[in-house]
Amino acid sequence: MQCSLHSASVHHIDLDVSLGDKGWRFTGFYGWPAVSERHLSWQLLTVLGEDFEGPWMCIGDFNEVLYAIEMKSGERTQWQMNNFRDAVDECGLRDVRFEVYEFTYDNGQIGEANRQCRLNRAMGNEAWFDLFPYAKLEHLTREWSDHAPIKLWLDRRETQRGRKKLIRFEQVWVGEDGCEEAIRRAWDRGGTDILGKLRQCGEELMAWKGVRIGKLMQDIQRKRR
Question: N or C: at which end does the chain have fewer Cβ atoms within 10 angstroms?
Fold first, then answer.
């Protein structure tokens, strides 16, 4: 792998990466932690993504959630999440599907004072997903930090029985928060081809399902441990 520095600041590092015959842009991102300065994060993100059409991966600690379901506790005002989503949409980015426990931040407190949410994530544009269609993000075990480290796998395809897992829409999803919004976002991003729109909807719904529907089982498993 070869890397060349494009730009850097306290809040980002922007690289050109090449691996074999594949090349893409890689941005490590750290969002402003103070809410009053959070708009600077989205200004930086949109500037980085301005007029860029090549493969792009952006990964890091964004210090914000995209949806309320990405929080186990605590509160976020709607405008905070909207501003983040607007910047992500403007850059043409979408989440890499993740594995293991969904929340990457834990303040370490107990009881009602405990706060958990998903602040760390990896997002790519469509050109990047064309290069790495089997990419996945792994949330590693949090030990000394209040943030869990994350590991990006460029090829995490399922090998069991050599078959691709089918995506089946469940009627129960219709009444769940965020389902309709995930479909609308996917439909807008899926291009003009109907198959592309359906494929995007499937990916978005599976990512949404991993956050919303899988939460109960993950909570049970965590409490058992």
Answer: C
